[in-house]
Amino acid sequence: MSRLIVISNRVSVPKTENASGAQGGLAVALGAALREHRGIWFGWSGQETDSFTGHLDLQRQHGVTTATIDLESQDIDEYYNGYANRTLWPLFHHRVDLTEYERSFGEGYERVNGRFADSVAPLIEPGDLVWVHDYHLLPLGKFLQDRGIRNRIGLFLHIPWPPTRLFVSLPFHERLVEHMLHYDVIGFQSEEWHESFCHYVEKELGGRVAADGGTIEWQGRSIVTRAFPIGIDYAEFVEAGATEVAHRAHDRLRASADGKKVIIGVDRLDYSKGLVERFDSYHRFLTDHPEAAKDVVLLQIAPPSREDVHTYQDIRNTLERSAGHINGAHADIDWVPIRYVNQGYSRAELAGFYRAARVGLVTPLRDGMNLVAKEYVAAQDPDDPGVLILSRFAGAALQLPDALLVNPHSSEEVGEAIATALAMPKEERIRRWQGMIGSVRDEDVIAWRDDFVAALSGPAARAAA
Ligand code: ADQ
């Protein structure tokens, strides 16, 4: 079995396989793959240094070898807070209005990708498979090849790929994609993002997409591109939901709701998650359905993220105002319509909260996949499941057509979906849940990882296996 070299912006090895920990499924799945493949996980330590030395901090953590580097504050500003989170993230989530272009961001991005390449290249041995993750590191494959690396290198993009007409607003867009066309495999979350990428390559770079719909021919190179929809660590999540911690969280939420139906939202505090629009929709529901309103409470859990970027400070302020306004307009002495919580919870607590909620409200304006939707489905009681309301603009919508699919920009539509979900008879809730659980269980993070690693191993390796 080939060794696996995983490269991502940050390294996050799960402490144990303990289901009640706070780790996400991605870290657990990659951690397990790295243990099986005897691999290395390389990335930024999250630490700042006065002057970049390239010093590699090698550690053996819970059966996985990690290698991290520290970055200078200018690197962090330009590469991470700048190009990754102020240029690519908003643009790839269709927020051209929030997209900031500064030449120094692009330069910092390439400089740090070069530093990543310099630091990780000496760790790569012939025969290793190199798996790069996400929008922080789009040019890394090319930069590794420039340093003599001849291994197979794949990229998985966790976020959407924008339509061509948006993407061309990025200065030097050709250069970014030409760098990407040095990977052997490029994976996307959904067919929609994959098609947008192929469209761009054909239209703007004159590449050719083969009849199989995925193999790109460009300047004598052949790149396999495909959708590899990511899933949750289903077994881990179900185990987390069976713990004492989960039961206590479930009972605590139910008791505090005092017989009212709970609607739950769980998101990083990010404008792409549609939280402001969600609060507006809930407001609309409360106004249009006063008879149902007093029997409902919305629990929105949203831990802050990327607080060094000003748009994230803005969204936090806007949401606080909105929650205050809605509560001010509708609350009574014994009822507050929105509980807005800014903290993180363990996997087990989240599983308990999801199970206690009659409605899962997942309404991103644009989302590569969205794992919360799948976690909500996985956590339900099969005999009395809740209803998932899901944005049609999340990658997950393609796999979960039995959710109530909504346009998150329409407060009227989402408000009506809330009313429909709350009134839905048990038979229909069970039927819809049964239509979703198979995909959530079988198309899990382990299947995703194995599928990508098989594609990266290449046809020759697969035939010999
Ligand atoms: P994210 O944008 O971070 O991921 P998402 O897929 O929803 O979005 O995953 C968030 C994860 O964080 C979930 O596992 C969730 O349970 C957890 N989480 C959120 N709030 C939490 C809280 N308060 N406490 C504890 N855990 C919390 C990016 C892309 C997505 C894509 C993933 C994986 O933006 O589209 O699905 O990567 O590829």
Textual characterization of the structure:
With 465 residues, this protein is an alpha/beta fold. The chain folds into two domains: 4-231 and 446-456, Glycogen Phosphorylase B (Rossmann fold); 234-441, Rossmann fold, CATH 3.40.50. Helices cover 46% and strands 18% of the residues. The protein has helices spanning 25-37, 73-92, 103-120, 140-146, 164-167, 173-180, 191-205, 234-241, 244-257, 275-288, 290-293, 310-330, 347-356, 371-378, 411-423, 426-442, 445-464; strands spanning 4-10, 40-49, 57-61, 64-72, 129-133, 152-156, 185-188, 208-209, 215-218, 221-227, 261-266, 296-301, 338-341, 359-362, 387-391, 404-406. The strands form two sheets. It has a ten-stranded mixed sheet with strand order 3-4-2-1-5-6-7-10-9-8, sandwiched between helices. The radius of gyration is 23 Å and the shape is globular. The model is unreliable at 17-22 (pLDDT under 50). The chain binds adenosine-5'-diphosphate-glucose (ADQ). Adenosine-5'-diphosphate-glucose is lined by residues 24, 26, 158-159, 230, 266, 268, 301, 303, 344-345, 350, 367-372, 375.
Give the topology.
Elements: E1 4-10, H1 25-37, E2 40-49, E3 57-61, E4 64-72, H2 73-92, H3 103-120, E5 129-133, H4 140-146, E6 152-156, H5 164-167, H6 173-180, E7 185-188, H7 191-205, E8 208-209, E9 215-218, E10 221-227, H8 234-241, H9 244-257, E11 261-266, H10 275-288, H11 290-293, E12 296-301, H12 310-330, E13 338-341, H13 347-356, E14 359-362, H14 371-378, E15 387-391, E16 404-406, H15 411-423, H16 426-442, H17 445-464
Parallel strand pairs: 1-2, 1-5, 2-4, 5-6, 6-7, 7-10, 11-12, 11-14, 12-13, 14-15, 15-16
Antiparallel strand pairs: 3-4, 8-9, 9-10
Helix pairs in contact: 2-3, 3-4, 8-13, 9-13, 10-12, 10-15, 14-16
Bound molecules: adenosine-5'-diphosphate-glucose.
Adenosine-5'-diphosphate-glucose (ADQ) binds at residues 24, 26, 158-159, 230, 266, 268, 301, 303, 344-345, 350, 367-372, 375.
